[in-house]
Amino acid sequence: MRKYLLKFFVVIVSLFHLSCGIGAFYFLDSVVQRGDEIIGADDANLTRIRLPRDDSDGYADLFRHFVIFYRIYISGYFAAVIPQDGEAGATMDRIHPQLRTDFNHFLRYTNIDNPNVTPFNNRLSFYNRRYFQLLLEDADIDQILNNSVLSNSNREVHLIIEFPVPPTSEPTLTLEATNLATGATDIIAGPYNLLRAEDWPGGFFEPEPANRLFQNHPDLNNNENAFAQPATFSGINDDTVRNTAVPADHIPRLTYVSMYILAEGLDMEVPRQPVFSQPAHIGVFRLPDSH
């Protein structure tokens, strides 16, 4: 029902814009639609997302690629799972109070069941919360997550993000396609190691450790290297939130990452301008210890 109400709203707004000479209203369907399940979203190690079909609203002519944003949180709390129900807030708060604050902030965009959901129209909404774009090792993520990976009438494509337990400790992104006629499953891209960012529209920073892998390393869980709320940049791990409740000698010293995914495209105006889907929360993952 929510999807159809949104489409009705878009049609009405579009007709209003056209009648006033303002221009059409463009949008992309949310990556995760109502009724879809992000499999394993409450798991601290793995999640699977069914990607939209190429005939979903906006994907045939507007869509360019998917974008994933992340932020890392230093913590002294071990969470085996991250619940996706009424207990989620309490668990996030134990991991890091700022994680819960950020999650609640983005609910205005991610809760597509809410008829008053706020339209998402700018990457700055993430950058302003110090969420950065996920990268891949030895691959251009914009090219990997482009329109060639969409589901269609013949196949269903899942994006898999895994944060494995040691001794395999490099978190990865994989794309898996299932033939709807035969049920056969194939890996169509990856696995690729996940990489942290090193720049954003506000400038550059120098992440530690230098390999930029998503691993719980002493240089990453070091408060001195991390960003301090509300706006104190370290110039080192500005993608990581320090935790003053976790002193240097605290055991355990852990790190978690929260991730969001959205679709990005270009409208049909001249010049063409960016257009976005509503973002979806992928989940919260515990980073594996470094080798």
Please tell me about this protein's structure.
This protein has one domain. It is 16% helix and 29% strand. Strands 2, 3, 10, 11, 12, 13 and 14 form a 7-stranded mixed β-sheet that branches. A 5-stranded antiparallel β-sheet has the order 1-5-6-7-4, with no helix packed on it. Helix 2 crosses helix 3 (97-110). It is globular. A hairpin with a 7-residue loop joins strand 12 (254-266) and strand 13. The protein is built from 5 helices and 14 strands. With 291 residues, it is an alpha+beta fold.
Total domain count = 1
What is the CA–CA distance across the termini? Answer: 48 Å
The whole-number mean of residue pLDDT values reads 84
Helix content: 10-25%
Detail the poorly predicted runs.
Answer: 1-21
The count of strands amounts to: 14
User: Strand share of the residues?
Assistant: 25-35%
List the total number of helices: 5
In oligomeric terms, what are we looking at?
single chain
- Gyration radius, in Å: 19 Å
Instruction: Give the H and E element order.
Output: HEEHHHEEHEEEEEEEEEE
Largest sheet report: 7 strands, mixed
- Approximate shape: globular
Estimated structural class: alpha+beta
Which short descriptors sum up this protein?
5-stranded antiparallel sheet, single chain, 7-stranded mixed sheet
Compose a concise summary of this entry:
The chain is 16% helix and 29% strand.
